[in-house]
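MODEL INPUT / OUTPUT PAIR
PAIR INDEX: 1
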Amino acid sequence: MLIFKPDMIELIKEKKVLRNMIYFAETQSVTDKIYKEMILTLIVKDVNILSEVCERGEEPGLDLKSAALSDIREVFAEFFNPQTPAWFNSYAPSKFEKNINFPKYNIKMQELCSLESPQELLDGIIDFYKTFGGGDSNNCLAFKWDSDSNKLAGIDIFSLDRCNIDDLYCIDYQKNVICENTELFLNGDNLEKRANNILLEGDSGMGKSTLVKAVLNKYYPQGLRLIELDKQEIIYFEKIAYEIKNKNLKYIIFIDDLSFETNETEYKIIKSIIDGKITKQPNNILIYATSNRKHLIRETWQDREGDDVHVNDTKNELMSLSERFGIKLSFTSCTKQEYLYIVENLLKSHTINTEEIENENLKEKSLVFALKYNGFSGRTARQFINSI
């Protein structure tokens, strides 16, 4: 084969096809054409020159298409022919919609499996690559760094915390700003304005991390993806940027609870990434970081009154990281009234009507819960809802 893995046909033949088809049908399939979908899944999860060209948002050249069409015809001749065992095409899985949390992926796969000619299938695969890219994780919305394989690894979509941005209350200003910035990021290639990296800082429990996750849930159909990094993994940023910089998708690097002690130096890497290196931050990467500290780097009175000859230089260095973020969104603890407002709306979203709320004195119970445990915050409101 010229474009897809040279041993793809041999790989399929060598596998215990029937056993693998049953496993695929029960765990991954989204159509009733199990055998065809299994073969096509191997193709769309292949990483090859065609997938890389499409991921860059480019149109494959005529010669590349011709070579790929030759491969597709070989696949058709080998697998999609009258000699294919009828049982392979009639197996009915226990349940469809295995990737129901990513319906766009399902639809594209269903469309692909409905195509009947090599040329139509090639056009469908090119469209698939342009939308999702190639590789094992092209049906993932979020990623993390795998130090063992030294590359990004997809996070199972079923394990994601799928937050709805409409269920976040009392942070309307922050929601508007981050949504406007994210939309500019997704649509700003042809605009003069550029999206900014964002630091979400302030009191805990007020939705900083949840808001970032909700942004992914709102905008992933438009090609947004998220890469979660611990601060210790910041050292891999350049490797990550190299891996994704030529892709047509847009990525948010999400660093939660970002803060440093004065003896930690990883913050200098972020400073250099955001604003300092001769090479610019890739256009398809933004950094959204959260922190309970306003200045990110711990500052002590000794830092202000110590034996450093240039005290102001020390203070500026400690404050310089937070100043590199183009947008800073502040979160403050909510008032009693705001807390009750959050509780009331969360109760409604859990299909508990207003009459039941009043009859059961749930508002009063929510106040007792807040005073007994973690105070007035959005997190406390959700913990109370979970407790009833």
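PAIR INDEX: 2
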Amino acid sequence: MKEIWDILTLCFREWPTLFKVKKLWKVEFLMWLYYLVRLPSLDIWLQRRLIDRDPDDFRFGDTPYQTGLKILQKAKICESDLFLDLGSGRGKMVFLAALSCNCQAVGVELLPSYNILCNRIAKNVGLGDRVQFVNGDFLEYDLTGATVIFTACTTWSQLTRDLLLDRVEELPEGTRWISAGQEQRHPDLNLVAADTLLFSWGYEDVWFYEVKRSK
């Protein structure tokens, strides 16, 4: 019952973070405005039919701002980082990282409408120099420039999770990897911390790793 209540009251829990982080309220207002007549489920269904990918890779779910802020703080994101959100959706984590940590932030998303709208919001709030949304497949995107990678694995198929995990070998030592929804078992990923946090679909475990080459 507690989980259901927490999900139902999530919108009220977001208010403190919306006004705590400068310009975040404006991002949320524009997001609400742009998506007023766009149902996420219909939007996803219309676009995914043109993309050769498992339907399970298009499950919708937002990371709440209050949860995102806890994740960024626990991962110790700073101004010198390049934050990369794989499967960025409506871009909440990307905007939050750029605004709260003053870092460069990039979102990679298969659905083109999300990227178009997110880039428009970024321009409207003056984040065009620090935020970028790329329409593409994160299984093929160049990950090597990122210092922090965020993945909400709950919204993908198991095959996609496994294929992405194989790419850990491409990452430089010291790269931080945040995984929500699935523990990542790879010899080069060193577990730093873990937590259980509230998402739009319920409570989920979140793991924090750092790339460290196994001997």
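PAIR 2 NOTE: The chain is about 35% helix and 20% strand.
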